[in-house]
Amino acid sequence: MDKSKLLLSTILNSRLLTTGIILFLFVSLFGVVGGWFIDPEMADVGAGYPSQPPSWEHWLGTDQQGRDVLSDLLLGTPQTLKIGLIAAFVGVGIGTIFGFVGGYFGGKIDVLIRLLSDVFMTIPGLLILIVIASLLDIVSTTLLGFVIATFGWMGACRVTRAQVLTMRERAYVQVAKLNGVNDFEIIFKEMLPNLLPFIAASLTGATAGAVLASLGLSALGLGPQNEPSIGLTIYWALHYGALIRELWWWFMPPVVVMILLFLSLFLITAGLDQIANPRLKDKI
Amino acid sequence: MQPILDIKNLKVYYHTSQGPVKAVEDVSFSLEPGERMGLVGESGSGKSTIALALMKAHKYPANIESGDIIVDSINIVDLNEEEMRKTRLNNISMIPQGAMNSLNPVKRIKPQVIDALTDHGIKLRDKEEKFLSELMESVGLSKDVLKLYPHELSGGMKQRVCIAISISMKPKVIIADEPTSALDVIVQRQVMETLYEVQEQLGAACILIGHDMGLMAQFADKIGIMYAGKMVEFGSVSDIFKNPQHPYTRLLIDSLPDTSGKRDLIGIPGIPPSLLNLADGCSFCLRIGKKNTKKVPWVKVTAGHFIQKCLTCIDYGLRKKATTKRTRK
Amino acid sequence: MGSLLEAKQVSKEYISGTFIKKRNLALKPISFSISDDSPSITAIAGESGSGKTTFARVIAGILDKSSGSLRYKDKDINQMNSEDILSFKKEVQTIFQDPFEVYNPFYKVDHVLTTPIKKFGLAENKSDIDKMIISALEEVGLRPDETLGRYPHQLSGGQRQRIMVARAFLLRPKIIIADEPVSMVDASLRATILEEIKKLREIHNISVVYITHDLTTAYQVADNIIVLYKGQVVEAGDVENVINKPVHPYTQLLTDCVPRPDPDQKWSKTSGDITLESRIINGCICAFCNLNESVESDRKIYEFNKKQIVSCKVAEKKKICTNEDISAYFTKKK
After folding, report:
1. Contacts of C97 in chain A (CB under 8 A)
2. pTM for this prediction
């Protein structure tokens, strides 16, 4: 009861974290709620005259193929977020489990996990993703999320492993062992709660990374082609030379949404860092 | 003799969202050149806050509310940051707690010693070699140590390097904040002897901060006992050990283990009060379940021996003392 | 008369490095036992790196020994069935040095007390658990309403360490291994904790192994003491003998360096370097061994008198110890 109160007051006390969360909610709600008010057909090819500047009918104008930019954006933002969140949760999940197993049990399995994460770190992720994405015929947003996750777990793995290594030697883990607590409970009841801020920070960081990767892939034309996403919008904008033709209402809005999203994720990570970092926590 | 350090009615508060924490409340004492003083107290008694205030190294939300700190007839409370920077190391220097861990691990000892001097605009040029080897010799280290990295030194050697840095400008007052807290007994003795020697050579006044009464008895001429932000007793080392007047001092000395016969160990009951919004009156009464809300006067016992005399708790622990020395069969 | 806990020639070697193995013999073979007929308090003293904490952890079963055998109630630790292991884990308890680190910052202090009760099945329902905790806290002089329901950082170091004593006591152990229980507690609060530890023996018949670097508290708390240096026994026996009449030059140096809280008993003025490194002559820490016998090699232990054994050439004329169990030379309290 007072644990949740404490958590709430810690969150509210951190200005960075609250601003970040509000901004993130704003971006997500923009996509989710905004989608209720528009007609999905507006985002189809030929819904309006092509390349029209903003007007009462099309608030953010239309693109080369006559799609309403606002509708396209409202439908694409949740899809992009979905890719990011799937990749982040799967990646951080795998990374955290690997980190715990390696850090806690050590030995050969740890050597193997460390080797694996070091190898994945050195491989240029985008390059492999391009190869994988081009091998797949039809890419859905969910599939893209999983594909990106295969290159998004190393950070979480390293952070968790390092924390578990120091925590394993902590006296409270020793005391738990003396109290007859088994390994499984030590990991979940003694260690995991103290790692939550780190895991949350990894999650937001990984989300930003995954969104960026999905934008990169989509902009190269390797992303999901059948569902609207911000990456796809950028791909078409590049394809039709929106930048050179100064169709600012076409390429600016997705960029602004992405900037807001990254800003919010950055603020959340920084805020969580502040809470997780004991030196900053002990301010009088 | 003219005191080299004179602290008058010093008050240092931490301003928190819940109210002021009176970390140092109305503390006064003075030291003459060459005198060694021990400042004793539990954690949170304000002893380290005094040290930081003397260096003006205290950070927000700590603030010197009022009082004077006069070092060599300059009131450093009035100095600005630039003037204070020159005073540090030159007039008053500190060996902070855990100093030996503050040495830069990727630099050799020599540049770390010289850095402090160049910061104060001193250029040694051709005298450098001689100056440094003399400085090292004064703390009992060979000049070869200058060429080493911190990790190549033992804990005691690192602590002596820190002493060397702090005396490099021949300060008039040296403050040592628990200089031996992480060291083994043999090394502790050696570091304390080093500190003793350099202090005598320089003729500087020295304040040793700590909670080990044994070290205080070995090192200090005068002792100030801090309790809950106030100085409760001040006197010569023999006043404090042979004729303690304040109940807290008495209990502190009685609780010390010795090796001249087994006895029951008597601890100090209760825990120190929180300094947040601490009311006026006797703080020690709060610990032993008594109450005195009147302001406690600072009373002279004999020449140079003072206590915070609270009539409510002055006799506490007196009767117990008679039975303390009971030897078990 | 048998022994409750018996360590025979136990040693501990740390091996590090993946390809090039670095070996560090932290504890040389040592034999020691705790008898089951009268509870005892034994101090293990030494400086950092002396192997005292390693020794404590090995006999507590926290660290695996590298050689030798450890028996509890006449059963080898390595050949115990799960029931015996559980009783060993319950009856040999450890109190750690750092009263801050032993608490999981995520939980209230209650967590550390309720977990062992549940895990060892000491009480069934909530009210029994509460009763046990309250009586254990009162046993160590804490008021339950001032301690329970708080987070570790809301309590003082002294209170926290006493809760750890209460935790150990809760399990009704036969042996408590206290690893420097007061070194990180304010000097003014040490006496209370040490007195609780003495009470464990006097009232509850619990044997205590008290690990410390502080010879004065060792003298006040323990009956007997073992002084270690670089993983090896230097001197052992009754505290009166070892601390007040030390024979080995190293023990003499240690007792000499204790800052006595008496302004009339100041350290004698020494000249030059008093550290050990400068005192090692021909590989020995004392000036007496003029042999090429290095500290690293196995040294003989001499029986200086019935209650004091010394590993130094200074006692060469005395006979070599016949009993390898150090505790054979200890004073037994009835």
Report:
1. 171
2. 0.82
